[in-house]
Amino acid sequence: MIDLHYWPTPNGHKITLFLEEAGLDYVIKPVNIGTGDQFKPDFLKIAPNNRMPAIVDHAPADGGEPVSVFESGAILLYLAEKTGKFGGGDVRARAEINQWLMWQMGGLGPMLGQNHHFRNYAPEKVPYAIDRYLKETNRLYGVLDRRLADRAFVAGAEYSIADMASYPWILPDAQGQDLADFPNLARWHAAIKARPATEHAYAKGKEIVPQQAPMSEEAKKVLFGQTASTGR
């Protein structure tokens, strides 16, 4: 059994995508990031960066004590190793998958996250910042579109953790993009959306947050006002 400390955000969805695809037993432990659950001492013991998702695996492969893992990319790698699924069957396949997983963790997620922030949440509109991250989002969509021109999935013919990492971040309406401009990306996105496990994963999010409401000013203070002393 795996405890998943989760909130329905792109990074949270990555992990439910894997768990549903692999058919692993798991229990969701909601972490309401808008009210500050991520700063609770028990959560910080397993996620010292005060960010979800995080997991606790009560049945690790070595049969020992429970294993806790934070950071969505590290969790995907851990689960791929645990199950032998979606992580590549040989050294070349793993290298292909892992480089695109790192691309998502280091580029796609952070840049599109800044797009969300300056377009939707910043207390004042900063034209330079909005334009900067809008263009970078467009560039990264283009990278994926070109990559998918001659393959079904990001790392090749097989669905993998590289796809699971990137898919939840492709939110064209929220990011000022038009998928019609990226036909290969659009095809890939539609294919993943139609997978039963994807439907199940996103349904889990709807159970936690049935309807997405505008972010309150109090939640913005919690999410965007953190300093080194916040979690003390």
Automatic annotation (TrEMBL):
Q: Where are the transmembrane segments?
A: none
Does Oxidoreductase show up as a keyword for this record?
Answer: yes
Instruction: Provide the GST N-terminal domain boundaries.
Output: 1-87
InterPro entries (UniProt xref):
Glutathione-S-Trfase_C-like, Glutathione-S-Trfase_C_sf, Glutathione_S-Trfase, Glutathione_S-Trfase_N, GST_C, Thioredoxin-like_sf
- EC number(s) reported in the record: 1.8.4.-
Q: Name one GO molecular function term.
A: oxidoreductase activity
The source's domain of life comes to Bacteria
Keyword annotations for this protein, in alphabetical order, are: Oxidoreductase
Oxidoreductase as UniProt keyword: yes
What is this protein's record name? Disulfide-bond oxidoreductase YfcG
The lineage, from the top, is: Bacteria, Pseudomonadati, Pseudomonadota, Alphaproteobacteria, Sphingomonadales
